[in-house]
């Protein structure tokens, strides 16, 4: 059973023979399971190349093209690989004087035996490794091993033997068996024939493999393995620590269903106690089990030094997403003999001591009467879903309240970091606060309200090794840059404080901790005030250890004392202490800190306050701690919200407000602001769920005291223009004129909203048949077609997936420019040859580049077709059957991938359907009757007009229509309808299908792009040239006289066509 956890790709080296024309459902299921191995092995090679760079590349024989994975994927696979290595190493180190056998069930292409022979040669002297998987997969594995001198030498050096199926390779220390794991009779006979298994200790390994088997088959396998006299069974796979409704769990389950490899065991054994009882009942009395997040923080298995070394190899800051992944995977070791070696530090999971989070979801009532949940004195309501360019997809931004509005600035969007802000208010007349005009977009920064009108932005980062030192002050409705904070930091704490002075209290910002570009974690306190800028605050006595991602808030109405908890150490462990601090003002500014961890009253919630990335806000006389991730376990539904009461003792209580009948938010990367002492508003948030997709919170949440009066509804105001539409902002910089503004670009989508109040929206319809589509084509009007199935591409085509499938080193020619709008006539862009990996990572990070696919075989002669030029992903995209008339007369189907750049205004001679796969896109379209107002040069199909920013004088003569496309939607664009497109949230991926809808009239000869004008027009232009030349020897005034008469006659005939 092939191990793996995600997307699949074909192995180009394998050419199956005698494959039946039609496969059974079981054969198709087996193929899907084997395909998970292909993605897994690519990820493991990425890990090996980075983290085991001094070792031979044992994965290269199975993965010819190296593809570097995202840091989150690398870190997650490293942890998986390390967990298995720990178990195997402990097994081999047992001192029972028996020879040992390691049997990898569903091994895929994993080179585990070769790695152990290289790393631990003396430990492997009396060990036989057995790889077991489907016969067709093991045949390919054998071919790859023998084709590699590195792997072949390991086989040849240990007395290789002649073998025949089901044994594909054999020497004195290795056995490769091709056997379906459901065929236990064949497997047992093979093991008995080849190995004296009865006299040896055996370790069975199932790394994300037996979970794909039908439940009865998997349980039979586990029971069968327990029949060997001295055996262990190690399983590493997924589970549901907080039930199937947890957002990560939802995403994970849907992902494997989509790959046609549903996780079979997870429904019957969703939690660790269930897995433990499963193995006990199957004959494994000694069972130790823990999740990978626990394993990560256990210094016995991963030393602090090793954890820190990982960061030095690859900068990393995806901690919340890493924790979510690791907390949904477990490693279990079962033993069927008396325990004579030490696994005591792997705690046994008993029902009465099982972590609370594992039980939380089952304890919540099953139904609720209202979307507004009222439990005791607290209520939670779901505000209207966000409907804007980003779709509410924003995480790790900065939240701040000024006046009546709550603002969420910057952070990470669906495709790239954002510079914009979203503002929310309960009244439509309120004005939001735009973000500062920084040169780059930042995440993990803070913006802190100093009073009702002013705010300070501090720090943040682009990448984990590029922190931002800039600080910006919002005052008098303008942003100005103030003194930098060095060293630059991100994931710091920042809160409003008040400093008493003789001339009056000074409203200031207190900053603690954070992480620098070099990876240093800070323990310093800094204070900014308007008069003196940044000051270092002295710590009296013992202060909190260095940390980043902590939570800090003031107590009640005080602005001079507060609390600090949680955060992470430099070696990636969440800190479980609780501090109270107080600012003191004398000759120097001081902070007095007291560790109050021992004052926490023990109860069901007291252990879950230690979090990373949580939000903490004053809430009446208490403090509200929300979301984030905790140490060792997932945060359960009943633990997401904690109230903290600061008294003689510190009381921490759970606030149970989440309803199973409403969508459960993923409280990671979100923003929180207390809008009053009785209400808190939560905005945005979400996470990348490893390689299985992303989850986004689509609607704000409001938490209110029940007695806070009438409920208010928070609405999104107009999203601020992130690219410079507001007036120039003065910057306070050394040696810079006060009125100088930074270079700014234009957000064309927002300008269009401001300038085109009378623009008509393109009609949106749902069609039922191909006849409906033909009717639309006949009207020659653009239409957005909704609720069509384009295949799995809308979920699968992430930047990582496309890079994996198409190859990071595949050469592509892209349009690249320095501005946010490309113009074809003036060619303000250049054609650049890049590797696809560099291109796709660049546009995902906001590079202004654009790929319009060309034919891979002969781009000068042949139109591109996705099935011919991108066969690796072509099956992911399906044009719905009801659009079959387009396929019957297809010309081309180019793949288009664009960064945040607007494409020039142009028309196409062929009809086409634009299928939006990833990202959102705005288009402006103009009918053919507007052609005289669009500035097309003679014989040209492109215009220099910037339609998104055109003024009213231009617009009043045109009849433009606007279309907003979301993933999965299709826009029919009739011939000769001029159009321009602009992505609204970073990267856009689409497929055009151009088709001929005219019976005749197309120009003869080559037309690679499908934009060659009709034959009649090309002939007409030649006729015009001849007519003009006929008047060449006539006096100028007479020639002009007749030419103008001919032009008027031609126009009259053109006008008569409509009548």
How would you characterize this protein structure?
The chain contains 24 helices and 53 strands. The protein has 1059 residues and is α+β, with helices and mostly antiparallel strands. Strands 39, 40, 41, 42, 43, 44, 45, 47, 51 and 53 form a ten-stranded mixed beta sheet that branches. An eight-stranded mixed beta sheet has the order 3-4-2-1-5-6-8-7, with helices on both faces. The relative contact order is 0.07.
Unreliable sequence segments = 3-21, 340-376, 721-756
Q: How many beta-strand segments? A: 53
C-alpha geometry: globular
| Rounded mean pLDDT score | 85
First-last Cα distance = 71 Å
What share of the residues does DSSP label as strand, in percent? 25-35%
Rg over alpha carbons = 32 Å
- Give the biggest sheet: 10 strands, mixed
Structural class: alpha+beta
Determine the number of helices (DSSP H or I, runs of at least 4 residues). Answer: 24
Helix content: 10-25%
Family: Belongs to the methyltransferase superfamily. LCMT family.
InterPro entries: Cupin_8, Gal_Oxase/kelch_b-propeller, JmjC_dom, Kelch-typ_b-propeller, Ppm1/Ppm2/Tcmp, SAM-dependent_MTases_sf
Pathway: tRNA modification; wybutosine-tRNA(Phe) biosynthesis
GO biological process, one term: wybutosine biosynthetic process
